[in-house]
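Work Package 4 report. The design task specified in the project plan requires that, given a folded chain encoded as structure tokens, an amino acid be chosen for each position. We show below one input record used in the internal validation round.
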């Protein structure tokens, strides 16, 4: 079983977290090269969990038109905007949402990219099921979804029936030489009005939801983080160790989430 390091970044600005991700990603690629020369790496990668201040990110294949407001309006609601190098279209990150960045060497884990994305989706499906929420997948649309027709947690959802689809978790990944970055964003206690300023993930006919919206009550964020890590361990057959301290915490603007 491979070891993966967990880093709790608390509430962290998107730009600083992106640079932190890139540093870990580049280091893991370098370790992969040394592994090819016979040096065994210390870890198969890292999992970062954090919350971001209000921010919208647009993937490399996304359309600017899916941002329904101007940048002046974004500034008025305290939100930033970033174009980034992941797959997918536009999405929102903000307080009350758990954003996960698994930076992993999939070759060490014996996984392909499609299998990896499936495992991340299953991790979220299993996590929300702990709060009594039945969620599943939609063909042709990455992420984790709900609608009124789903009967069993994890089953594929027919987008054509059973009420309006609503997304509880967005997923967008970049990989190079089977090393991953970017990841998923699970709405826990998220203020859903921020999704009204975009066509989430490029879909104009689909909505967004959260654990709190589905259960009718605010949820303890730490419990959700613990559930995500536990399910990720099982679905990817890894052992996750928490890194309690790391250099540059203050430099990167990382602070404990409230």
């Amino acid at each position: 079983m491979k070891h993966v390091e967990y880093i709790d970044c608390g509430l962290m600005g998107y730009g600083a977290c992106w640079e932190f991700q890139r540093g870990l990603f580049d280091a893991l690629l370098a370790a992969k090269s040394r592994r090819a020369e016979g040096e065994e790496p210390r870890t198969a990668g890292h999992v970062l969990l954090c919350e971001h201040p209000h921010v919208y990110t647009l993937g490399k294949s996304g359309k600017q038109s899916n941002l329904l407001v101007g940048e002046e309006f974004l500034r008025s609601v305290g939100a930033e905007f970033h174009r980034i190098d992941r797959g997918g279209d536009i999405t929102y990150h903000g307080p009350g949402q758990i954003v996960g960045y698994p930076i992993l060497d999939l070759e060490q884990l014996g996984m392909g990219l499609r299998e990896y994305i499936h495992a991340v989706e299953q991790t979220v499906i299993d996590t929300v099921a702990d709060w009594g929420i039945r969620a599943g997948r939609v063909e042709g649309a990455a992420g984790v979804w709900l609608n009124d027709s789903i009967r069993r947690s994890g089953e594929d959802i027919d987008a054509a029936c059973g009420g309006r689809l609503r997304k509880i978790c967005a997923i967008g990944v970049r990989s190079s030489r089977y090393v991953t970055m970017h990841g998923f964003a699970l709405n826990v206690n998220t203020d859903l009005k921020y999704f009204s300023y975009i066509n989430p993930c490029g879909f104009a006919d689909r909505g967004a939801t959260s654990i709190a919206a589905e259960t009718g009550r605010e949820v303890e964020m730490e419990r959700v983080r613990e559930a995500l890590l536990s399910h990720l361990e099982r679905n990817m057959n890894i052992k996750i160790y928490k890194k309690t301290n790391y250099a540059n915490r203050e430099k990167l603007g990382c602070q404990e989430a409230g």
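Residues 40 and 124 are 31 Å apart (CA to CA). Validation will be extended to a larger panel in the next phase.
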